[in-house]
Each structure stands twice: as structure tokens, then as C-alpha cells.
Amino acid sequence: MPIRIRLLLAYLLATILLAAGGEMVFERQLQTGLIASMDAALESRAEEVTQIVSENGALDFQDEPERIGPSRATFTQVFTPGGALAVASESIGGRPLLTPAELETARRAPGHLTRNLNGEPLRLLTQPVARSSGVWVVLVGGSLEPATAALARVRQDLAVGATGLALLGAAGVWLLAGTALRPVERMRRTASDMHVRDPAARLDVPRTRDEIAALALTFNDLLARLQSSLWRQRRFVAEAGHELRSPLAVLQAELELATRPGRSRAELVLAVAGAAEETRRLTRLADNLLLLAQNDEDAPLTRLQRLPLAPVVHAAANRARRPGIEFRVDVPAGLTADLDPDRLRQALDNLLDNAQRAAPAGSEIVVRAFTENDTVIIEVTDSGPGFPEHFLPAAFERFRRADTARTRDSSGAGLGLAIVKAVAEAHGGHAEAANRPAGGAAVRIVLPLAASSGSASPAAQTG
After folding, report:
1. Each residue of 382-413: pLDDT tens digit?
2. Under 8 Å between Cβ of 144 and 38
3. Residues 6+ apart with CB under 8 A from 213
């Protein structure tokens, strides 16, 4: 159901409830006021009749027709101590209006009664009068028909007024809701015509600085984030396809050469070794791509354990050793941290591979770990040309490569530092890259000494 109609129905329901409640309260107060006014008139009339009845001497009502007879708005009955009707107004005839039980009650104290006579509502007042012959009862009353008619007219007028007010208010709510929701409808039509691939697709933000404008801003921000995510995904797929194509082409060429007739055993061994190297490169690239994809989906990357750091670092350095490059590892034997050894190995393998490709022949790569404040820092330094200054701000972005002067070959996929950053952040830390004053590059993985509850994945906490 449209919001406009819901608002209109809510207004009408609230108006009906308020009008009904207000009418009931007003009618009750008006009825109470009319009855109180009649009671006051009856009490005044009762005082006049009581004064006549209470006079000493014999009572002869026929001598007092004007004083005892009915007034314009009231009627009178007077009862003797024996319960007989001594006098009654002609407008109600000679029928007593009080039963014996009511008459007995009236002799003890004044009281008010409401009675119907031939379908007409009456208001009665009884007043006891003590004489030497006993207690007489004076009854005066009046018709409630004028008050009832007045209440009916007021009720009708209130119903007409409330209906008119409700209709007028409903028209106002309909117009006001339409005016307030018109920008939302424009935004809906604009959004339905948008395409998320259009980088310029945005909603017009009203200048009202209200909730509608805030909604448009929020939608535009969401659209920008979706477009950015889509752009990163498309770029990731395109770059991944490009990076996979090169080793696959080399692998295909190696296998085709190996299958040619007349190849010697040495040539076959060399071809198979080349294919195995490209297969390892493909496996490593696939692992890196999988980790980055999991990181994009906020999937758990680590299973943290309290482990010594030295074995992990030494094992990574041993895997990276190649002829012509010296490795020096400096890690205190007792240094421990909350870490995932497999993920840290993946990050260190990428760091050492980058350093080895940048380091000149005969130089040294240093891997050291130390504590600083409440963190553990793993640092890899080389003696190469360092990072270009313009590259440092984007060093940890995916598929970013330094200039060819930085490395001795260009076989890297540009994912190494992105992997390092993802692994560091999965541990609750961060990664840093800088150039050394003496020359060469330095890359740090900064990890907390103890993992916070927020940095460990559910799998880590249960594993």
C-alpha cells in the first residue's frame, strides 16, 4: 500500500478516535451541566413549596392554588404522613410518582430521582417536611425532554463539524503527503533508469537539507561504493586473466617442445623442469588470487596460534635461497606471537621473492624480527635501487609494479605486496614500505603481540 494512502488512513483513524473521544467528554459534561441546572431550579421550587407546607396551622391547599400549583417548568406533589397524595399538579394527573418504599426513603432525607412517565424522562426532587402531625414529603420535578433535545442537537452538530473537519484535514494530508513524497518518486524514477556501470549515474540531491536529501546522499554513496567494487572486480578479473595467460603459454610451449620427436633425455628433463617451474608459478599465483578474493568477501583468512616466530622466518628464508644472494636472518629464539603460520609463510614468500628479484648479485637480504611497544615487527631489507617515490603511496595496491629499474626481471604479477597487506591486516596489524637512507628497500609486517578479539576469525577462535 502506498505511503500516501497509509498516511491518509492513519490520519482518518486518529481523527475519528479523537472526535469520538472529544464528543463523549463534551456530551458528558454538557449533560452533567444541564442536570445540575435543572436540580438547582427544582431546589428553588422545592423551597417555595416546603415553606408553605411547613407553616403551622391547618393546611388547606385549595386556598393556595397559585402557590402550590405548577410553575412553567416544574410540577408538584405533596404527600401526607400517611402516604396519601394531598395535592398534585394537573399536568401529571393524580397518579403518585413515588412508590411506598421511595416515599419511606424520602421521609428520612432529601434525594433526587430520574423517572420515565409515558416515555418522557423526568427529574424529581424529594424534600421531607416535619409538622406536628408527622413528616410530609414534598416532590417537585421537571421534564428532561428539553435537555435531551439539546444534547441531540449538539451531538448532531458535532458529528457534522467533525466530518467536515476530517474531510478538510484528509484533503490537506493527501496534498501534503504528495508534496513531501514527490522528491522520493523522482528519485525512484531516476534510480530505475540508472545503470550501475555508468560512473556518472547519481541522484539529484534536493537543497532542502532534510531526510530526503540525506536519503539521496546515502544512495549516491552506496552507488559510488558499488561502482568502485564493480570496477575493482572487473579489473581484478582482467588482470588475473592476463597474469595467468603468460605462465600458461610458457607451460604449453614447454610441453609441446617435450613432445616433439627426436628430443634427447637432457632436453626432455630441461623441458619438464621448465614446465614444473611454470606450474609452481601458476600454483602460487592461484593461491594469491584466492587469498585476495577471500579478503574481498571478508572471509576468515587466519587461524591464530601462539607460536615462536623464528622457525617460520627461517623456513621462509631457506625456501627463498638462490645462488648469488646471501640471506641473513636475525630473530630472537624466544620471540612468540599470535599468528597463522601458513598465511605468514605466504606473506614472507612474496616479500623475499620481491627482495631477491630487486637485489643485485652478491648482495645481502636481511630478515629480522623484533618487538616495539606492543607489536612484533618483521622486516625484510635489500640492497637494490629501492622503490620509486611515486610508487610508494600505491605500493600495496593489486597489480601495481615498480619500474623495471627496481627489479632484474619483470616476471612478477604485482600481487606480492597486496598479499602482504592482506595477511598483516588479517592478523590485526598492518604493512609498511619505505626506502632505506643507505639504499635499498625495507618492507615491514607489523603484528600485535597478542591478537585482539576482533582480529581473530571465528575459525581461529574455535581452532
Report:
1. 988 888 888 888 888 877 776 544 444 444 55
2. yes
3. 205, 206, 207
- DSSP states of 278-327: HHHHHHHHHHHHHHHHHHHTT------EEEESHHHHHHHHHHH--TT-EE
In the three-class reduction of DSSP (H, G, I as helix; E, B as strand; rest coil), residue 81 is classed as coil
Domains located in the chain, CATH noted:
3-150 (3.30.450.20), 211-294 (1.10.287), 301-462 (3.30.565.10)
For 338-355, the pLDDT digits (tens) are 888 888 988 898 899 888
CA distances from 104 to 77, 85, 100, 125 (A): 15, 14, 6, 14
Number of other residues whose CB lies within 10 A of the CB of residue 98:
20
Q: Counting Cβ atoms within 10 Å, is residue 429 exposed (0-12), middle (13-18) or buried (19+)?
A: buried
User: Which tens digits make up the pLDDT trace of 233-279?
Assistant: 777 777 667 667 767 777 787 777 777 787 777 877 887 887 787 78
- Give the global pTM: 0.49
Rounded to whole angstroms, the Cα distance separating 162 from 16 reads 8
Dig out the grid coordinates for 110 from the structure: 432529601
d(CA 223, CA 3): 25
